[in-house]
Description:
38% of the residues lie in helices and 16% in strands.
Amino acid sequence: MSLVIAAVSGCALCNIELAFLVDSSTKTDPNAWTQMLNYVRNVVAGYTISATCVRAAVIRYSDRADASIQLNSYTSVNPLVQAIGQIQFLGGGSNLATALDLLRTQVFASNVVRSNAVRIAVIVTDQLQSSSQITTAANSVKQQGITIVGVAITGPRRVDVNFFGGIVSDRNCLIQVNSYDRLIADARDPVVRQCACRTFEPPPVTTTTTTTPAPISQRKYERLLSSVFSDLLHRVRGILRELST
Length: 245
């Protein structure tokens, strides 16, 4: 499958871990899957793919999900682009929650990602309906500091855009296209040049402040000691008077 790059512009940043979650559920358009993969290939071609700059993974999902390409599978763009084009279509229902859980627990696992890299997940779907299971999975992903970007193909009228806007990290990074053949023209540059081109920001360091009581002055200490001694002497005298009667 040949690849025609839609634009020469790209993301100049490094230290990015990218994951594409591509909806491989049953399509009404026979060319849909090929066009969705071509879109991902064009997006990937806009980065400097290497072990020390940008790494990319691809998760395909329908009723189930699998990591067709892992972050460490390819260290240069040409073999990666070729491999994306060879990912087979699944068919069946669409279960984004399964893909999000796979992303969080395996593809972006702490022992896989680089500690100084920003993590970005790009969801490409033509079928998404409101689901508490998906909301929970998306929140778990975002709580780990992963940015979620959305690309919705709205032509088949199977995407709940309002719901999709609630699970992405930034509603401005929910890109909508009317048809599969508009993916590259309308949704490539917003992802490559903006939504999935970010610098790493280390999490804030929380510090615990311990308050040390102010020291008591010598004069105040002497007054306190005198008061305690006077009270004690008064009590002793009282006891002695009771004993003498």
